[in-house]
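User: Here's a structure from my thesis project, written as structure tokens. My advisor, Dr. K., wants to see whether a designed sequence matches the one we expressed. Can you design one independently, without my sequence as a hint?
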């Protein structure tokens, strides 16, 4: 299978995951539960993580575990900016760039403010569309950052 075909398959899988995680409702209490779950899941990794959840342009959860710092804050912002711009996960955005043979510089006005890599995921309501994002930063593999966000959202959805 060519890399292009693999990327297209990955893109579709990421899109399906976003569809799976559309919510009927999502409150600030749900954001707190998701954030705490992300921190809990992150404890199973050797490296520290930072987690941020935004809703309606307001940061409703943010925690940086011991060992994280301003670099992680910057990555949270860059991932959030990518999700807000594209209305898709930052990992799907990275995959889209790969499929199209583009770089971040080709797509965004200020590449230093965006990230094409895993860890940012949209929070979407069925009847309203995207209302926010959950972002995770800190692990060496951005796919692991992405997975923590997924695990946190799946947990919240399972509790509804």
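Assistant: Designed independently from the structure alone:
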């Amino acid at each position: 299978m060519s890399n292009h075909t693999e990327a297209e398959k990955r893109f579709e899988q990421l899109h399906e995951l976003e569809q799976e995680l559309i919510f009927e409702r999502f409150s600030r209490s749900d954001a707190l539960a998701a954030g705490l779950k992300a921190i809990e899941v992150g404890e199973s990794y050797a490296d520290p993580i930072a987690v941020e959840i935004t809703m309606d342009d307001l940061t409703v959860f943010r925690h940086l575990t011991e060992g994280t710092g301003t670099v992680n804050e910057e990555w949270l912002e860059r991932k959030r900016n990518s999700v807000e711009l594209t209305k898709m996960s930052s990992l799907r955005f990275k995959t889209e760039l790969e499929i199209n043979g583009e770089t971040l510089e080709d797509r965004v006005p200020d590449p230093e403010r965006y990230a094409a890599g895993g860890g940012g995921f949209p929070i979407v309501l069925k009847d309203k569309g995207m209302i926010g994002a959950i972002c995770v930063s800190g692990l060496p593999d951005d796919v692991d950052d992405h997975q923590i966000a997924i695990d946190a959202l799946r947990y919240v959805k399972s509790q509804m």
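When you compare it with your expressed construct, this may help: The longest strand covers residues 129-137.
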